[in-house]
């Protein structure tokens, strides 16, 4: 069972997400919070598998809460999925920089939100598919993801790890990558498990952003 915390200052959103996720057989909503300080305190006490956070909350915004829950130096991170109404809001980039495993727009369909929670819980990370290219372009041309602990990447990744990272950046799942490389899915997972610590990141999403920032892959032109 995947344990989920929901934090949003709008009661309608909290109740809607709670009902939506609670209806899934493998998801359990263990708490809801209406502001940032409450979200942080509940997350530290309940240790959910995923914290679904709004960005703009009273008392403490979602970026600050994210940084406290899963930012650099946090020994027992709580994975964060950001839900926002803003598709290219600087707050979104700030949340990803602070360590969030992904974000979705609040108008995503229920199946997409539930799937995103599962992906974040599994350490895969997610970005709304309609925004992925735009988000990565923003990171490459305007922002610096922190922490970036390795300069370049050719010197730390094996040829196979680099190959997998490139396919990951194309949006492929573990199954897709396994089929593309003619290997077992377990082999792909093993490579990913070794790769993430090398790059100093905690999720597949951050690995993809790292790949774009360090020139392992490039953002297509508009």
Automatic annotation (TrEMBL):
GO biological process, one term: regulation of DNA-templated transcription
InterPro entries: CheY-like_superfamily, NreC/VraR/RcsB-like_REC, Sig_transdc_resp-reg_C-effctor, Sig_transdc_resp-reg_receiver, Tscrpt_reg_LuxR_C, WalR-like
Keyword list, A-Z: DNA-binding, Phosphoprotein, Transcription, Transcription regulation
Domain HTH luxR-type: start-end pairs: 150-215
Alphabetical list of PROSITE patterns matching this protein: HTH_LUXR_1 (PS00622), HTH_LUXR_2 (PS50043), RESPONSE_REGULATORY (PS50110)
Pfam entry (one): Response_reg
Modified residues (4-aspartylphosphate): 54
MF (Gene Ontology): DNA binding
Name the record gives this protein: Response regulator
SMART domains per UniProt: HTH_LUXR, REC
CDD domains: LuxR_C_like, REC_NarL-like
Record organism: Auraticoccus cholistanensis
Domain Response regulatory: start-end pairs: 3-121
């Amino acid at each position: 069972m995947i344990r989920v915390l929901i934090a949003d200052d709008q009661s309608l959103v909290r109740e809607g997400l709670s009902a939506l996720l609670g209806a899934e057989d493998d998801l359990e909503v263990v708490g809801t919070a209406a502001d940032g300080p409450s979200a942080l305190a509940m997350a530290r006490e309940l240790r959910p598998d995923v914290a679904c956070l709004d960005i703009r909350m009273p008392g403490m915004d979602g970026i600050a809460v994210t940084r406290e829950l899963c930012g650099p130096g946090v020994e027992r991170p709580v994975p964060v999925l950001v839900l926002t109404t803003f598709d290219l809001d600087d707050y979104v980039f700030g949340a990803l920089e602070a360590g969030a495993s992904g974000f979705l727009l609040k108008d995503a369909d229920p199946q997409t939100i539930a799937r995103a929670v599962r992906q974040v819980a599994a350490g895969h990370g997610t970005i709304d598919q309609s925004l992925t290219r735009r988000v990565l372009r923003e990171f490459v041309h305007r922002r610096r993801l922190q922490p970036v602990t390795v300069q370049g990447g050719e010197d730390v990744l094996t040829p196979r790890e680099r190959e997998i990272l490139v396919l990951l950046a194309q949006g492929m799942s573990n199954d897709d990558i396994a089929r593309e490389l003619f290997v077992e899915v377990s082999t792909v997972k093993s490579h990913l498990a070794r790769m993430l610590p090398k790059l100093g990141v905690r999720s597949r999403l951050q690995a993809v952003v790292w790949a774009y920032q360090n020139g392992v892959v490039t953002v297509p032109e508009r």
